[in-house]
Amino acid sequence: MKTLLKLDLFQWFFVIAITVSFLLMQNQFVWLKEFPKEFIFPLSAILNSGMEWVVDYSGWFFKGISWFLEWPIKGVRWLLHFLPWTVTVFLFCLVSYIASGWGLVTFTLLATFYMVLIGYWVESMNSFSLVAISVPMAVLVGFAIGSWGFFSERAEKVIKPTLDFLQTVPAFAYLLPILLLFGFGTTVGLLASLIYSFPPMVRNTILGLRQVPSEIIESGIMSGASSRQLFWLVRVPTAWKQILLGVNQTTMASLSMVIIASIIGGTADIGWEVLVYLRKAEFGGSLVAGIVIALIAMILDRITSGLAKNSVTYKPREKSFLRRNKFWFLAITGVLFFYIMSFIFPILNQWPESYFISPAKFISNGLDVFILNFGTQIDYLKQVAFFFIMLPVKIGLQLSVSPYTWGFELTPFLITAYFIIMILFSSWCFFKFSKDVAVGVVLFSIFIYFGLTNMPWLPLILIYGLIGFKIGGLKLSLTIVASFLFITFTGVLPQALLSIYLCGIAVIISFILGSSLGIWAAHNDKVSAFMRPINDTMQTMPSFVILIPFVMFFGIGEFTALLAIIAYAFVPAMRYTEHGLRNLPETVIEAARMIGCSQAQLLWKVKIPLAMPVIMLGLNQTIMFGLAMLVIAALVGTTGLGQLIYIGLSKADFGTGMISGVSIALIAIIFDRTTQAWRIKLEKKTQ
Amino acid sequence: MASKEIKLSCRNVWKVYGKSPDDFFNKNNGNVSDPLKLAQEMNHKEHIVANANVSFDVHVGEIFVIMGLSGSGKSTIIRCLSRLVEPTAGEVILDNEDLLKKSPKELTEIRRHKMGMVFQNFGLIPHLNVIENIAFPLKIQNFNKDTCFEKAKKVIELVGLEGREENYPSQLSGGQQQRVGIARSLIVEPDVWFLDEPFSALDPLIRRQMQDEFMKIQSVLNKSIVFITHDFVEALRIADRMAIMRDGFIVQFGRPIDIVMNPVDEYVRDFTGDVPFERFLKAEDLIEKSKSSTDNMKIISSTTPIQEILPQLADSKNGLAVVDDKNKELGIITPQGVINVMASAGSKKVQNRK
């Protein structure tokens, strides 16, 4: 054991020594600091010419599919435009009633009327038409693949990692290859949304079918069901709720992607409106349009989740034909009624433009006044965050500390003092806690002094590889090293580091914020009840919309991106922490109380350690959410991989876009694997 | 008993989980000379032995109970009989045909007509109401709705669920849910009835009540039954014959009273130790050869429980005559005879406990 400890420390010592020597020598040898340009593998160019070849030789095939798929879109759009708005609203309300009840009907009525009133009815229906077509397709595809994965273990082994990958590649990165293959048009949005939204359906189908109790299956078999009867009459109906939850997630993902896809333009939908106003910096308009997206998201979420919930409350079957089909009759009568009425009262057919009310100007003006009055405070807030948090992490204390920023110069004496203090602190940690903490302190002090983006590439790979090795063994370590080598050799390491820096800060803040809120909510029912609808809304909201309020107040830039990521990513940290703390075994808590733990001891010594695996799952999800939002945040001006994807998209540079997209996915995958491995380690400890 | 016709029989059935369980049986043309040794070898090679060399017969109209603790292999063996679990080796013979040689299609047909099964946690289909659940086995045979519901009504009456037809399983109590399970298993009028711990998930009071009703139903229908339980007292109450399982093996066979009186080893003795054996005595256990004529005696059946014998015995000085189900006279019961049996059994039990 002792020799092992020595060996362990020696590995760290070796890696840190290399890091320090690289850092000291990097001014003499440029290749130590930056990966030499000559060695960058021209993958981007190869991908581009490959894509060109595909488009040249089989472009007609994809264009044909595109042409074919445009018809249903056109059809649904035509129908939604043709129907008087009152008919559509009536149908939405009827479905709301079936799914949930009068509460949701009221909400749907108000929300749709808002869309009509501000003059975004047509745009909203354009977005909805894409969702309405892509969801059934995604549901069918997802259900078929899910059933296949359920029956064939071998298929599942292929399906699961493919889904993992599809869900970690940022949504933006899908758009480009689809755009190149299928050509400009509404089909791009449809296909992107299809690809983005079918994975949750697959997962929920597999999960649902797996969860059917074995006795129910056995009772089906003993009743003499053939395997087809067993599937359709026993397995699927019993798994129905989970399958409908899959439909819910698929719908939300589909909407999110439809909105993102409007970035390529030409769709005349609501996402495009938001984007146009954002680009013009008319935030009132973008907020008004953004609220429409939020409302659509909420309606679709409540309806689909309501249907899932309803599916397990069984009511006695109605006897008479009329009562059994009452909703159909109601629908037909209602549609006819409003259709006829719309001829008598044209306002029920089309809301006249002169009646549009748009608060956009008003909001913009109000915002201007606000910024005029509080501009200095906002700038101050931004600067503090920049000088004391973001810059030190990005370029290090060595470059960020100056009389202009921190108010003093970084003299050699201060540098020496910094390192001595850090070394002393590290040794204190070694004796007080453990060698891992001590090593962490050393690495942290080096990172903060030189800055993450100034770290030489080779030590970076070594350090992260070793961390992976300590946490998850050789396999994890190799995954990490291979991913970093891909990023390095394709030449996007500098951008990747910028992304990791921004996302890293956001994740840490989100996690601290989220888990603190989670602890609070776990001990206070009022806080929990207050936060639940907020969390629900944040999670169903298309990520695009979350940007809007932050851009309004803080303008374009990294700080805005940071806040937007935090707003999106703190939710899972909070949810999982609360869930973990609330679901601890009661007996352990009672035992700890009887032993005489104080409230604080109970929390820190009993509850949190026990809930740690669940909290770690929250951290994992926070990282995934953060990375997803990072790419969207490129719209408001971040540097890094997100920006690179965005550039690739606007220049139709397939290679660059793809490499950046894959790099983000790789970063997501290695952070995912690392936190998972850590969680498993903790779980073994607590069980 | 031996004269009775055999309905279902299980011959040297093995169920082994692991990487390559078949290898153990390919060696000697499938002949196993020393099951215990083979099971040890399997365990040694990281295979799990769920059933080892299990053999028994179930007679027509008999309740055969398999009793054991959790993990003893009792649930696996009942699934081997119905081929919900594929046995690794052995034979399962139903009506002189080997079930293990049947194709999936033939098997489905057999299940549709000859077998019924009741599950511990009921196994009801949640989205179907009571009558639909019960009629499910008929529905999948494409019977028309009226036939389904007509037959379903009959079994609903049999299990006493009238008025609950429209309810869904989640709206029923445990006892009622199990009545649905029982009704469903009976709707195709099967010959063989499998019950896998049917009353274990119920409260003790409800359990007693259900056992009584089960016995009543059986007295009407006279099925051939395999009944699984971990409750020794339940086994004694309802069994005609029973087997006790441990670690996949059957450790003891016999009528309940035989097992209570003569447990083969410590394991069985642990069960029998606290059982008041007197309660499970039946007429046939108390018989002595008659020296005098039995003409004036009252006649009782050999399966009459002692609770019913004692009051009758108190009224008749000479004793009671015992006949079997073919009305053949087996012997008589006298008060002194009862006392003798109890005394000898009691002393035996005390010895056993030491």
How many domains in all of chain A? 2
Going across the biggest sheet of chain B, name each strand in turn: 6-7-8-3-9-10
The major pleated sheet of chain A works out as: none
Classify the fold: give the CATH topology of the largest domain in chain B. Answer: Rossmann fold
Instruction: Determine the CATH topology of the largest domain in chain A.
Output: MetI-like fold
Overall strand count of chain B? 13
Distance between the termini of chain B: 33 Å
CATH fourth-tier homologous superfamily of the largest domain in chain B: P-loop containing nucleotide triphosphate hydrolases
Description:
Chain A has two domains: 54-312 and 336-358, MetI-like (MetI-like fold); 451-686, MetI-like fold (Orthogonal Bundle). Chain A is built from 29 helices and no strands. In chain A, helix 1 (2-25) crosses helix 21 (457-489), helix 4 (85-99) crosses helix 14 (283-310) and helix 9 (186-211) packs antiparallel against helix 12. Chain A is mainly α and 687 residues long. The longest helix of chain B has 19 residues, at 335-353. Chain B is built from 13 helices and 13 strands. By secondary structure, chain B is an alpha/beta fold. In chain B, a hairpin with a 2-residue loop joins strand 4 and strand 5 (97-98). Chain B folds into three domains: 6-114 and 193-209 and 224-273, P-loop containing nucleotide triphosphate hydrolases (Rossmann fold), CATH 3.40.50; 117-189, no CATH class; 281-353, Roll (CBS-domain), CATH 3.10.580.10. Chain B starts with 5 loop residues before the first strand and ends with a helix. Chain B has helices spanning 23-26, 35-44, 74-81, 104-113, 130-139, 145-159, 174-186, 204-221, 232-238, 256-261, 266-272, 306-315, 335-353; strands at 6-17, 48-59, 63-68, 89-94, 97-98, 115-118, 192-196, 224-229, 241-246, 249-254, 298-301, 320-323, 329-333. In chain B, 39% of the residues lie in helices and 22% in strands. Classes of the chains: A mainly alpha (687), B alpha/beta (354). The interface between A and B is medium-sized, with 22 and 35 residues.
